[in-house]
Amino acid sequence: MTASTDYDRILRAHEMGGPPFSLPWRSFGFAAQPSGGRRSVGTELDAVIAWRAARGLTLEAGYCHLFGHAVFDGFDDEDTRFGYVMLTLRH
């Protein structure tokens, strides 16, 4: 069994040297709300546990929490949370 945590800072793609999501660059929208020129989407904290049940069979469960930054200003809840379970079969 393995456990891991990750902490990531998320910026608009254009701020990281990649292409913008839409033109003009300041009209990037997330959930139909423009960023207003803001570039910090948020920081994400992930916790993942993986268990190798058998050869070629892995069960993974994770929980993620995105702490919304400036792009989410004006939303009722600037944070997003989700969990998942994944079964991987390799042959």
Structure description:
This protein has strands at residues 2-11, 29-30, 33-34, 40-54, 57-68, 80-89. The chain has 91 residues and is mostly beta strands. The protein has one domain (2-89). The chain has a 4-stranded antiparallel sheet with strand order 1-4-5-6, with no helix packed on it. A hairpin with a 2-residue loop joins β2 (29-30) and β3. The two termini are 20 Å apart.
Q: Report low-confidence residues grouped into runs of 5 or more.
A: 15-32
Q: Can you count the beta strands?
A: 6
Main sheet record: 4 strands, antiparallel
| Helix count, DSSP H or I runs of 4 or more residues | 0
The SSE string, one letter per element, is EEEEEE
* Strand order in space, largest sheet: 1-4-5-6
Beta-strand percentage range: over 45%
Helix content: under 10%
Quick one: overall form?
elongated
Question: How far do the termini sit from each other?
Answer: 20 Å
User: If you average the pLDDT, what whole number results?
Assistant: 77
Structural class: mainly beta
Radius of gyration: 17 Å
Overall number of domains: 1
List the helices and strands and how they pair.
Elements: E1 2-11, E2 29-30, E3 33-34, E4 40-54, E5 57-68, E6 80-89
Antiparallel strand pairs: 1-4, 2-3, 4-5, 5-6
